[in-house]
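User: Hi! I have a protein structure encoded as tokens and I'd like to know what sequence might fold into it. I'm fairly new to this, so please keep things simple.
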């Protein structure tokens, strides 16, 4: 123990910081040597110091940066317009309005949350296989068709059928 104290006292604050990181990584990984990983982190930190910071003006002016920005904005807008947050928030009420009991509505909400987690894990695996662009476009297409189906279903539900009196037809 005293050897460790002596070694720590002989090091600078920068080296002590790395010693703390080294200790934490060593604890996290177990007995695996983490020197290579530490070196890789150090190199990446140095690259980040050297890399040029992008300003908001450059983000809007440069054509090569504008396209990724536009894609990110469209994805965020699509997520908001999908309404999934509202559906999750009001899911118990939605299930109650679908004539489920209070207990059944709560279980259905739990099931929906569990399905959300399962599909998130599946999508993480599919990203590696199919790629982000394919999954994104497939998701947008699915959202489009589901929105049309929901709109059509709501239109048919809101239309009241006309009642005809067929008693005088004889």
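Assistant: Happy to help. Inverse folding works backwards from shape to sequence: for each of the 170 positions I chose a residue that suits the local structure. Here it is:
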């Amino acid at each position: 123990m005293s050897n460790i104290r002596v070694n720590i006292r002989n090091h600078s604050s920068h080296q002590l910081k790395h010693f703390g990181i080294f200790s934490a990584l060593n604890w996290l990984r177990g007995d695996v040597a983490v020197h290579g990983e530490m070196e890789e982190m150090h190199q990446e930190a140095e690259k980040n110091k050297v890399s040029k910071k992008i300003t908001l003006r450059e983000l809007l002016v440069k054509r090569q940066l504008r396209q990724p920005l536009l894609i990110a904005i469209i994805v965020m807008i699509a997520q908001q317009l999908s309404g999934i947050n509202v559906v999750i928030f009001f899911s118990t009420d939605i299930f109650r309005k679908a004539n489920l009991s209070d207990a059944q509505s709560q279980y259905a909400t739990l099931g929906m949350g569990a399905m959300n987690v399962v599909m998130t894990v599946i999508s993480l695996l599919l990203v590696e296989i199919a790629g982000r662009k394919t999954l994104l476009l497939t998701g947008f297409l699915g959202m489009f068709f589901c929105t049309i189906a929901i709109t059509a279903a709501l239109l048919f539900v809101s239309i009241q059928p006309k009642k005809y009196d067929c008693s005088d037809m004889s």
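A useful reference point when you look it over: The chain has two domains: 2-50, 83-158. Feel free to ask if any position seems puzzling.
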